[in-house]
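Contributing new records

If you add data, match the layout below exactly. Sequence lines come first and carry their own label; structure lines follow with theirs. Keep one chain per record. Anything else will be rejected by the validation script.
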Amino acid sequence: MQVVENIALISINATMVVQLVSFLIFMVLFNRIMIRPLRTIMSERERFVEKVRTDVLAAGEALGEMTRQIERQESEARLVASKVREEIVEAGQQSVADLLNTTRQEISALRKSTQQEADATIAAARKGIQDEAGVLADHMVAALLNQRSTN
């Protein structure tokens, strides 16, 4: 018997070739069964993430546009409200002015009618006083005449 001493770490023989072939078959099967589906899932996920990213950017732009539109509408509404407020104030001032003019006219009419009534009362009183003065004068004249004739 001969003792073969082999000190080399790797010996090339049929076992190594079989192991190499089985490893290559394993790698091909592993690639088909595990790696390709994972790569397709990863690429789908990347596409999904990219789609979500573009959707988020589009939504951000839409939000910005809506915000600008709301700000425009708000400024328009403020302008309209300001105009309406000015119209209301103007209408109120006009109403107050009309009411004041009407009240002044009523006061003037009442003053005139009161003055006319007072003038009529004074004229009637003067006439009554004149009539009474005439009667009183007649009585005085008659009394004086009676007094002179008795003396």
